[in-house]
């Protein structure tokens, strides 16, 4: 029997009333992928992967969704209030999340660039459930005593265990090839549960290969759904591994 899907978020669209109170002609509302999301909405599956060049807007999208869901922009679970310096965009205020009927409201945002500060926050604030149906309490691990990659894997093992929305922004930045494979395995397992959901922004062709993922390529055109093999990211890596000198010559001659 197929697992019944009770995904935390089924669709992201614009909150038109809130949008009227914001400057639609300023960043980030002028970013093509943001404009497209606000115009057309975005349906989410069990695993949704966003890929694209630096500055394309994929991290802005996942950050906005995480905040609209109730997570801190600097990482952590729903209800966490870790913050150091406010740099996030106001996009979250313009988003409307269509939540799955009967789905959990718990979630976790794993953001590579702010994890060091988040570890200190965890040491000061041992985590516990924020909602009745939240994930069970966990013991605070000595994250600062682990390597960057080890601490990421420990977060995955200890926080990604129950029903919820899991948002990951460039998780591969801390992971080796085998670490990325471990993450792919966890994403695949999450997709099979029916009540766990992941949104991932990544530059990694390994992470983008998560089985069953819906992949969107983000660029100057906005967002377009793609097959893994057709991604520029994948084709560029294939080309580099086949003939590194062909790529390096342009850098060395610059």
In the CATH hierarchy, what is the class? Alpha Beta
Beta-strand content: 15-25%
Total beta strands: 10
Low-confidence stretches: 129-139
As for the CATH topology, it is Rossmann fold
Anisotropy-based shape: globular
Average of the residue pLDDT scores: 84
Q: Note the run of SSEs as H and E.
A: EHHEEHEEEHHEHEHEEHH
Strand-pairing-aware structural class: alpha/beta
**Multimeric state of these chains?**
single chain
Per CATH, the architecture is 3-Layer(aba) Sandwich
Largest sheet: 7 strands, mixed
Rg computed from alpha carbons, rounded to a whole number of angstroms: 18 Å
What is the first-to-last residue Cα distance?
58 Å
Trace the largest sheet across and list its strands: 4-6-7-8-3-9-10
Number of domains: 1
- Helix % is 25-40%
Number of helices: 9
Can you tell me about this structure?
The protein has one domain (9-252): Rossmann fold (3-Layer(aba) Sandwich). The protein contains nine helices and ten strands. The chain has helices at residues 16-19, 32-40, 58-69, 115-124, 148-159, 177-193, 205-208, 232-242, 244-252, and strands at residues 9-14, 42-43, 47-52, 76-77, 95-99, 107-111, 164-169, 196-202, 214-219, 222-226. β9 (214-219) and β10 (222-226) form a beta hairpin. α8 packs across α9 (244-252). The longest helix has 17 residues, at 177-193.
Q: Could you provide a short overview of the structure?
A:
The chain contains nine helices and ten strands. The protein is α/β, with parallel strands linked by helices.
């Amino acid at each position: 029997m197929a697992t019944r899907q009770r995904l935390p978020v089924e669709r992201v669209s614009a909150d038109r009333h809130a949008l009227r109170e914001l400057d639609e002609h300023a960043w980030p509302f002028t970013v093509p992928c943001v404009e497209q999301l606000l115009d057309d909405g975005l349906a989410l599956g069990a695993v949704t992967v966003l890929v694209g060049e630096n500055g394309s807007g994929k991290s802005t999208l996942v950050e906005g969704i995480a905040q609209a869901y109730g997570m801190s922009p600097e990482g952590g679970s729903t209800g966490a209030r870790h913050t150091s310096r406010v740099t996030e965009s106001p996009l979250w205020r313009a988003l409307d999340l269509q939540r799955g009927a009967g789905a959990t409201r718990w979630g976790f945002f794993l953001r590579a660039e702010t994890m060091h500060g988040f570890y200190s926050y965890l040491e000061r604030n041992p985590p516990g459930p924020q909602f009745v149906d939240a994930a069970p309490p966990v013991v605070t691990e000595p994250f600062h005593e682990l390597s960057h990659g080890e601490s990421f894997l420990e977060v995955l093992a200890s926080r990604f265990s129950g029903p919820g929305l899991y948002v990951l922004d460039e998780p591969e930045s801390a992971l080796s090839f085998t670490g990325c494979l471990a993450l792919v395995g966890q994403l695949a397992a999450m997709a099979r549960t029916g009540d766990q959901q992941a949104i991932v922004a990544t530059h990694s062709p390994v992470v983008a290969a998560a089985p069953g993922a819906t992949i969107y390529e983000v660029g100057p055109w906005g967002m377009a759904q793609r097959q893994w093999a057709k991604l520029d990211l994948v084709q560029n890596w294939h080309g580099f591994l086949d003939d590194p000198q062909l790529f390096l010559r342009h850098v060395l001659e610059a």
